[in-house]
Amino acid sequence: MAETLFLNWRENRVAKCAFAVFGIMSTLLIYGVCQEKIMRVPYGIEKEYFRYSLFLVFCNRIMTSIASAIVLMASNKSFDPIAPFYS
After folding, report:
1. Taking Cα atoms as reference points, which of 4, 27, 24 lies closest to residue 14?
2. What transmembrane ranges does the database entry give (predicted)?
3. Among the listed residues 35, 36, 37, the one whose alpha carbon sits nearest the alpha carbon of residue 57
4. CA 57, CA 79: separation in Å to the nearest integer?
């Protein structure tokens, strides 16, 4: 059973879903650990703490947007939205 589940993972929706969930959860876990480390460790000569967590989230969103654009350009897919704007 497990052999057929993972041998045909490209066709198997359960395996694809499990892979996507694992990828998203592990990425969020790593991001949370890194953010906590940045916020917890003092920096500089005066040993100040990083106080602007919103800036970290902003940087994450910008980098995610850039990475998504690169993947779209590499796959030759359109940047146009698929769903109509009014819905």
Report:
1. 4
2. 13-33, 54-74
3. 35
4. 24
The pair of three-digit structure tokens given for residue 1, joined into one six-digit string: 């059973």
Amino acid at 11: E
**In contact, 65 and 59? CB cutoff 8 Å:** no
Residue 49: closest CA among 31, 37, 34, 32: 37
Going by C-beta distance under 8 Å and a sequence separation of 6 or more, which residues neighbour residue 40?
49
- Rounded CA-CA distance 2/20 in Å is 18
Per residue in 17-64, pLDDT (tens digit) is: 889 899 999 998 998 898 888 888 888 888 888 888 888 889 889 999
Give this prediction's pTM: 0.57
d(CA 45, CA 49): 11
